[in-house]
Design goal:
heterodimer, A: 109 residues, mainly beta, six-stranded mixed sheet, five-stranded antiparallel sheet, 11 strands, 0% helix, B: 116 residues, seven-stranded mixed sheet
């Protein structure tokens, strides 16, 4: 079966760095996405990785290792507004998105 | 990024009535649209996938006669919740994907449905 695993909840301090991991097992791979979702709102796109390596975009970076079926989202200089759920999703061989359950990130002052 | 507009943002309806939710891609042609529902503190649950001009593909456990999906054009898909019941109260979100398969899905704002 297809499976996406990510931690249920993480806590970090304002100004610090946090890494949210995602491991996956899917039938085929056409890229991995990270989305941010604030409570009561729709997800918003953060990043897309299809090749191995690190993609940096401002305070957010996303890393992919296809051989390990592993990705992480790195958030630097955390701000209170970063408190949200972070969803990992993999596009399989049929171009369908397989979603993780999301990681709730709690930022403390 | 591309814009997907979902309407209404929230709706309250009486039990037994039907509710229609619209999802429009404003600046691109959406060959594929996805409908999700999300219960509080839970992740997205894919309900169905619709390709323009063809019947929607429903996920296991989703009643196609209750959740009617129409994708008649490349810019509009609708989800109709028929004979709504309180247990249908949820957050419904659509997303749309363009002509190229390997692109991100753009999400609508979501619709908060409350059935009383």
């Amino acid at each position: 079966g297809q499976n996406i695993d990510q931690p249920t909840e993480m806590t970090a301090t304002e100004g610090a760095i946090v890494q949210i991991n995602c491991t996956y097992q899917t039938s085929g791979f056409n890229g991995l996405f990270w989305y941010q979702q604030h409570a009561g709102e729709a997800p918003t796109f953060l990043s897309y990785n299809v090749l191995d390596g690190l993609e940096e975009k401002g305070r957010f970076s996303s890393f992919l290792s296809r051989s390990k079926g592993y990705s992480y989202l790195l958030l630097k200089e955390l701000q209170m507004k970063d408190s949200a759920s972070y969803l990992c999703a993999v596009m399989d061989s049929n171009y369908q998105l397989i979603w993780g359950a999301g990681t709730k990130l709690i930022i403390k002052p | 990024g591309a814009v997907v507009s979902q309407h209404p943002s929230w709706v309250i309806c009486k039990s037994g009535t039907s509710v229609k939710i619209e999802c429009r891609s404003l600046d691109f042609q959406a060959t594929t649209m996805f409908w999700y529902r999300q219960f509080p503190k839970q992740s997205l649950m894919l309900m169905a996938t619709s390709n323009e001009g063809s019947k929607a593909t429903y996920e296991q456990g989703v009643e196609k006669d209750k959740f009617l999906i129409n994708h008649a054009s490349l810019t509009l898909s609708t989800l109709t919740v028929t004979s709504a019941h309180p247990e249908d109260s949820s957050f419904y979100i659509c997303s749309a994907r363009g002509l190229e398969g390997n692109t991100e899905a753009f999400f609508g704002q979501g619709t908060r449905l409350t059935v009383v």
